[in-house]
TrEMBL record:
Descriptive protein name: Peptidoglycan-associated lipoprotein
GO BP annotations, alphabetical order: cell adhesion
Organism: Flavobacterium bizetiae
Signal peptide residue numbers: 1-19
GO molecular function: calcium ion binding
A Pfam family recorded for this sequence: OmpA
Length: 727
């Protein structure tokens, strides 16, 4: 028996899949438009100016019932039923996915804002809770099976094909120091295609073999089966596009990046060639979280029939059936029927952590969780999985090795690469190369036109990027379009700033040579008075005469008070108020008449007083020694004489010594000279100016009285102070 009822129910179990597309590729920072399918936030602050997808496709199958050598299945004569290894359980499962992305693009609309528009055709199929032992029994037909009695339970299968037109928006939400957060949202218009499903409810199947005539064996079943399709295939087996089958869906996601080296990307320090560091991946660790495929499609022309399958059928009944619906309608009771249905999208939660291990080497840990109940009628979703993917990525090349633990199909290892505008890969290729019991296979490939953000070229390093630099090989300022300013006279002052562009001159004089405006031989740049001639020693300025007395300040001892040149510019004073200026006053501190050069005149009274004082100077008899007996009186007389003499600083006085005639005339002469000198020295010792004094002895030659009497001789023994005139 080659055709069985159960074959119609369970044929899709060999196609199982991971409804996850582009496994290992979407987390690449250069995945571009494909990354929006996994997390719409990923396209914000991307490495692209724009990314245009021309065509890409991803497909995958996997299951937990059949294990095969994938490459043997392509050999001629391969018998799937006999050469595959089955692992039947009470509840085997399978999923299937096929994903085609048509013309799509993404581009930055502002530094922190990005949009993407994509077109996509998808097909996802699920088979869940199938009793694998029952499948194993009937794989060769009922007539080849022994007696069996299986509880098929609540087997559930669903398949949907649809198209999407998606619009994604992503933006940077927060940026401060090492913290960087971005978010994204995708809105999708959904156009339904083909949708079908089968749902069992407490189905039990028992086969009774007829050993005499195997074709007379019977199949006894019980329970309930619901069957739904997007159109009435019983009335019309040709698929007709239903424009009214549509719906809406959306995805949303967040991405956080930890950027410990954020100060290296400070835009305030960026050079024009840095292009605001848009070409660099700046994170050390990236965290992503997203929910995709929230929404549904409303098939308004869909049909759902529910059958009570309690009854017994024979092989002959099965052989006579033209189609599945005919068989159900002829042999079982339809308990309900309705038109129109909604089918959900394969809603899933995604999370990933991406670690930039070193330069262009990354390690990604990604997990997917199905959000659709396995028992939901007409429900289909993804398989839970965890993938660890090391990769190397650069602008034009990436290589990645996804290692995945997948619900149902187990562990698998694949690889993929991206070269320029092309990418190709598989999440299971390495496992399938070595395993003889593979339960999964997948692939993805595509072609696109990537336009990357990049650092601008600045050949001469002048801060003006080449595309704006009129002199790309010679450094120059931005205000001159990157060209150096000309300097015709080679004086180091650019012509734009040079007041004398054809004559060399210093920078501080705007490129002109210095002049000597006042002709004082001192150039204006060092001349403190460039418009007035002056001596070099006064920095080219004329010497000032502040008080206007004709004596320049540099020579004027009194620069702010007018005076006489002969008095060094100071006014003449008269300290003793005698009317004789100090400059001609020989006695500036003692008042005196002008005719005596400002000094007081020596009067007869003064001379008389000097005579009296001088008489009282006593000597030891016969010696030129002041008398000790009269010491106090003699000293007082000398002090009095000193006080008189100091009042006549310009007068010359003589100290004359005299003796009587007693004794040897020569001795008397010598004695008189010595006594006169003793008096002069004593006055000098007391402070009298030596220039005002002289001494002389006359012996007994000038008596003032008779030497014949004692009183006369006493008068002749005397010391006199005589006024000689002015100095």
């Amino acid at each position: 028996m080659k055709k069985t009822l159960l074959s119609l129910l369970f044929i899709t179990i060999i196609f199982s899949a991971k409804a996850q597309s582009y496994l290992g590729y979407t987390h690449d920072n250069y995945a571009g438009i494909q990354s929006v399918l996994f997390n719409p936030a990923s396209i914000a602050d991307s490495r692209f100016k724009t990314d245009i997808n021309i065509f890409s496709v991803s497909g995958s199958v996997a299951n937990d019932l059949y294990g095969v050598n994938i490459f043997d299945t392509y050999k001629k004569g391969y018998d799937f039923d006999t050469q595959s290894k089955m692992t039947p359980k009470g509840a085997n499962n399978g999923l299937a996915n096929f994903d085609i992305m048509g013309p799509s693009f993404m581009f930055n609309i502002a530094p922190k804002h990005t949009i993407a528009v994509f077109t996509r055709a998808r097909s996802v199929s699920n088979v869940r809770n199938i009793n694998g032992n029952l499948v194993d029994q009937v794989k060769d037909g009922l007539d080849k099976a022994s007696d069996f009695n299986f509880n098929a339970g609540n087997a559930n299968g669903a398949s949907n094909t649809w198209a999407e037109l998606g619009l994604s928006y992503a933006a940077v939400l927060y940026q401060k120091d090492q913290h960087f957060l971005k978010g994204g949202l995708t809105a999708k218009y959904l156009q339904g295609g083909v949708n079908g499903y089968v749902k069992g409810n407490n189905v039990n199947v028992k086969y009774n073999e007829n050993t005499v005539n195997p074709e007379k064996g019977t199949l006894v079943s019980s329970g309930e089966i619901s069957v739904g399709t997007s159109q009435d295939f019983e009335a019309n087996e040709d698929y007709k596009f239903d424009s009214g089958a549509n719906g809406f869906g959306f995805d949303f996601g967040l991405v956080y990046e930890w950027r410990p080296d954020y100060d290296q990307y400070d835009l305030s320090r960026a050079k024009p060639a840095d292009n605001n560091f848009r070409d660099l991946n700046k994170y050390k660790v990236r965290f992503g979280l997203s929910v995709t495929d929230v929404g549904s499609i409303n098939y308004k022309k869909a049909r759902q029939d529910t059958y009570n399958v309690n009854g017994t059928i024979t092989q002959e009944m099965i052989d006579d059936a033209d189609n599945f619906y005919d068989f159900l309608n002829e042999h079982y009771t339809k308990t309900s029927s309705r038109n129109g249905m909604k089918t959900n999208l394969p809603t899933a939660l995604h999370a990933d952590v991406d670690w930039n291990m070193y330069k262009k080497f990354y390690l990604n840990l990604n997990g997917d969780i199905n959000m659709v109940s396995a028992n939901k009628i007409n429900g289909y979703g993804i398989a839970d999985r965890v993938t660890l993917t090391p990769r190397y990525e650069s602008r034009w090349f990436s290589f990645y090795v996804p290692m995945t633990y997948m619900e149902y199909s187990g562990m698998q290892v694949g690889s993929g690469l991206r070269v320029g505008a092309f990418f190709i890969g598989s999440g299971s290729i390495l496992t399938n190369l070595v395993s003889k019991e593979s339960k999964a296979a997948d692939f993805h490939l595509g072609m696109k036109i990537p336009v990357y953000e990049k650092k601008f070229k600045d050949t001469d390093g002048d801060g003006v990027i080449d595309k704006e630099d009129a002199c790309r090989k010679v450094a120059g300022p931005a205000e001159n379009n990157g060209c150096p300013w000309p300097d015709a006279d080679k004086d180091g002052v650019f012509d734009k700033d040079d007041a004398c562009p054809n004559v060399a001159g210093p920078v501080e004089n705007k490129g002109c040579p210095w002049k000597d405006s006042d002709g004082d031989t001192l150039l204006d740049n060092v001349d403190a008075c460039p418009a007035i001639a002056g001596p070099i020693e006064n920095k080219g300025c004329p010497w000032p005469d502040t008080d206007g007395d004709g004596v320049l300040d540099k020579d004027d001892a009194c620069p702010t008070v007018a005076g006489l040149a002969e008095n060094k510019g100071c006014p003449v004073l008269d300290a003793d108020k005698d009317g004789v200026p100090d400059n001609v006053d020989e006695c500036p501190l003692i008042a005196g008449p002008a005719e005596n050069k400002g000094c007081p005149k020596v009067t007869k009274a003064t001379l008389e007083k000097l005579k009296v004082e001088a008489k009282s100077i006593f000597f030891v008899t016969g010696k030129a020694t002041l008398s000790d007996a009269k010491k106090g009186e003699t000293s007082g007389r000398l002090d009095a004489i000193k006080e008189i003499l100091k009042n006549y600083p310009n007068a010359k006085f003589a100290i004359n010594g005299h003796t009587d005639n007693v004794g040897n005339p020569k001795a008397n002469q010598k004695l008189s000279e010595e006594r006169a000198k003793v008096v002069m020295d004593a006055l000098i010792a007391k402070g009298v100016n030596p220039d005002n004094l002289s001494s002389q002895g006359f012996g007994a030659s000038k008596p003032v009285a008779t030497n014949k009497t004692a009183s006369g001789r006493a008068q002749n023994r005397r010391t006199e102070i005589v006024y000689l005139g002015n100095l």
